Amino acid sequence: MEHCHLYDLGGSGIKIGTITLPSDDKVTNHIIVNNSIIHHGGYIFPCSVGLIIFHGSNNEITHNEIADFRYSAISAGWVWGYAHSPSKCNKIEFNHLHHLGWGELCDMGGVYTLGASEGTTVRNNVIHHVYSYDYGGWGLYTDEGSFGILMENNLVYVCKNSGFHQHYGRKNIIRNNIFALNLKAQLQVSRDEEQLSFTFTNNIVYFNRGDLLLGNVDRWKRLTVDMDHNCYWNTRVKGIDFYGMTYPEWKKLNRDTHSIIADPLFVNPEQYDFRFRNQSVAKKIKFKSFDYSQAGVYGSEEWLTKARLSPELLQEFNDVIK
User: Fold this and answer.
1) Among 239, 242, 175, residue whose Cα is nearest residue 203
2) Beta-carbon contacts of residue 28 (< 8 Å; ≥ 6 apart)
3) Where in the chain are the domains?
4) Which of 31, 128, 276, 285 has a CB 3.0–4.6 Å from the CB of 59, allowing a cystine?
5) At 92, is the pLDDT very low, low, confident or very high (cuts 50, 70, 90)?
6) In what order do the strands lie in the sheet with 65-69?
C-alpha cells in the first residue's frame, strides 16, 4: 500500500492481522505501508487507531503521515503480558505522527507496543502534540509485556504525560532520541520488576515545565534499568531534580554515571527547531545526529501540501491544550 490518502474516517485507517491468535503462528506478514497520508479519523469510534497491527510480523510502516485521531497513531502487538506473541520484527520508521488524542480519551501513544516483540524497530519517527483526557498522553509507549524493542532516533515533543512511558516490559532499548517540551514529565514508568526493564542511553531530554520523572519515586529507585550517557536540561533551573533526588544522589543508584546536565544547544526549541547550533554537547554523550525532517511522506509539493493540517485545525487543537 503506497501513496494512498485515507481521510474523514469513522474509525481506523489501516488494520493488519487478526485479533485471534493462530495455533500455527501463521500470521499476516510482510505488509508494506509506505508514503501514505492517514488523516481525520475516529469520528464515530474515537478509540480507533490510525494504523494497527494486531497479530502480524515483518511488516513495514514507513514514511507515513498520521494525524488528527482521538487515540494512538500506530499500535503493534495484541498480547498483554509475557505470554507468547507472534508479532515480531515489525518496522515502524520515518513516520510523522501528531495532533492525537484531542483531550477525549486516556491511555494512548504516538507509537504503542504490546507484548513480546523481538526485532521490532521504532526509528526516525517524529511524534508530537499527543494530548489525552486524563492520564496517558505519551509519545513512545511500551505497554504490558513489551519485550525486545529498539526505539532510536525519534524526536518526541509536546506530549501531555511524558515523551516515553513503559508500563512494564523487559530488555527494550531506548537510545539516541530527543524528548523535549513534554508537559507533565519527560519519562515515566508504571511498574518495576527485577529483570532489566529497559536501557536508556545517549538520549537528550530538554524541558521547560513539569518534571523529569513521573511514576512514583520508590518505583524509580527499585527499577532495574540501565541509564547512562544522557543529556538532561531544565531551562528553569541550573540543576536537575531526579524525583526529589540530586544528581549525586541519583548516581548512587547506578543511574546516569556518565550523563551530563547541559544545554544541548538546539537552534530554536521553543519554535520546535531541534537542529543543533553546534554539536559540542551532543558529542559528549555520543549522540548521533539524525535528520528528523526525513520523517513523513515524500514526493511532489502537491502531495506534501496534502499532508499538512490546516492552520484552523492546528489552532483548534492548541485551544484544547490550553
Assistant:
1) 175
2) 16, 17, 18, 55, 56, 57, 59
3) 5-321
4) 31
5) very high
6) 5-6, 37-39, 65-69, 96-100, 126-130, 155-159, 178-180, 204-207, 231-234, 260-261
